[in-house]
Amino acid sequence: MEGETSVLLGPRRIGKTSVVLTMLELFKSKGHYIYFNFSRFLGTKAISIADITPQKTSLKFITTSKAYKFSLKGVEVEVRKTSINEFVSDFSTLVRIFSENTKRGVIVFDEAQVLARLKNLDFRGLIQEIIDTYTNISLIFTGSMPGLLVNYLNPSPDRPNFMRGARTITLGRWSTEEGVGYLKSGFGRDDPRFPRIVESLGGIPGFLAYFGLTALNMGYPERDTLDSALTKTLEYAKEEWRRDIGAFLALYNSPIYTSILKILARSEVPLRGSEIYKLLEEKPKRIQHVYKYLKNLEKAGFVKSSGKRYWIEDPVLKLALL
After folding, report:
1. How many H helices and E strands in the chain?
2. Which of 14-23, 24-33, 126-135, 155-164 has the lowest mean pLDDT?
3. Where are the CATH 3.40.50.300 domain residues in the chain?
4. Positions of CATH 1.10.8.60 in the chain
5. How far apart are CA 56 and CA 59, in angstroms?
6. What is the pLDDT of residues 22-47, one digit of tens each?
7. Cβ(265)–Cβ(317) below 8 Å
8. Does the CA dihedral 234-239-240-242 come out positive or negative?
9. In this structure, what are the phi and psi dihedrals at residue 310, rounded to the nearest 5 degrees?
10. How do beta strands 304-306 and 309-311 pair?
């Protein structure tokens, strides 16, 4: 936590935000934090400096439509959002005052890949300034579209390279055993259906939490509601995946992406790019272009690959596509 840069990756609803918010709550006794959350802008083609407003902080905080203001040990700092120059100058001042008035500080950018869509400002310059100048300020970036975030933070060799000293942590899905343990703990009992439920929901903690609360609200364990709760959770989970696909397609507007995803969803085995190309009704001009589409889908977290073979890992995503 002393000046370290961390990148937390994993699909949506895997628990990144929960991990970060729990850490910030524990951190309050040691220093101060500022937390920005950009999840509501996923799929937005462009955001402005007005959208860079903290959602949580341990400091005294006032926000208006044109500015936000912090108070640290009686020192007030205002960040104006009325022009790029004012914003950059004020944000730099904020970080300097923040560093000078806290022993340790943390700044979090949740779903940070959205910053790549910022109009008229490359925010990486401010990020680089923080990393290079303020050794007591730790930065945390999270991203549910891992490749897109890494691309943004780790540009070509002639640009600042923020990832060089970063610690990258990937949150994985729960195994069947871990998911069953979670359900046992939550319900205070075991059930032979738990393994099937965990596997049906792809081991995603957020979906398992939703399932557990749904079952309890429907009367479990007094009433046998597990199957009904699973059906309701699958509908919710499919809708969440569809929203993620929609956010992706809003940025990458080509029907070929949808076609590739549906081909992979129907397949019971991993497929080579050449096999996918043959199955496409609307084909790109060259077979090599299929790999560009697959690469972007993998960066977005929809597709997995190994040995030039591609597949969809999540069972609910498959259901949503089909």
Report:
1. 12, 12
2. 155-164
3. 5-170
4. 176-242
5. 9
6. 999 999 888 999 999 999 998 899 99
7. yes
8. positive
9. -125, 145
10. antiparallel
CATH class of 5-170: alpha beta
What are the helix (H) ranges across the chain? Answer: 16-27, 84-100, 124-133, 146-153, 176-187, 194-200, 205-217, 226-251, 255-266, 273-279, 288-299, 315-321
Distance between CA atoms of residues 149 and 152, nearest Å: 5
**Residue with tokens 């560009």, as numbered in its chain:** 292
| Residue 188: CB atoms within 10 Å | 7
Backbone angles phi, psi at 79, to 5 degrees: -110, 110
* Domain 252-321: top CATH class: mainly alpha
Q: Of 67-81, 160-174, 276-290, give the lowest mean pLDDT range.
A: 160-174
Buried b (16+ CB within 10 A) or exposed e, 28-60: eeebbbbbbbbeebbbeeebebebbbbebbbbe
Q: What span, in angstroms and rounded, lies between the C-alpha atoms of 86 and 218?
A: 53
Fold of 176-242: Helicase, Ruva Protein; domain 3 (1.10.8)
| Domain(s) of CATH 1.10.10.10: residues in the chain | 252-321
b (16+ CB within 10 A) / e for 89-128: ebbbebbbbbbebbebbbbbbbbbbbbbbbeebebbebbe
Q: What 3-state DSSP class applies to 243?
A: helix
d(CA 293, CA 249) in angstroms, rounded, equals 12
Residue 257 has a pLDDT of 96
CA dist., res. 180 & res. 54, Å (int): 36
Cα-based distances in Å from 267 to 47, 96, 166, 191, 255: 37, 54, 37, 31, 19
pLDDT tens for 50-96 read 999 999 999 999 999 899 999 988 899 999 999 999 999 999 999 99
Looking at the DSSP bridge assignments, the partners of residue 309 are 272, 306
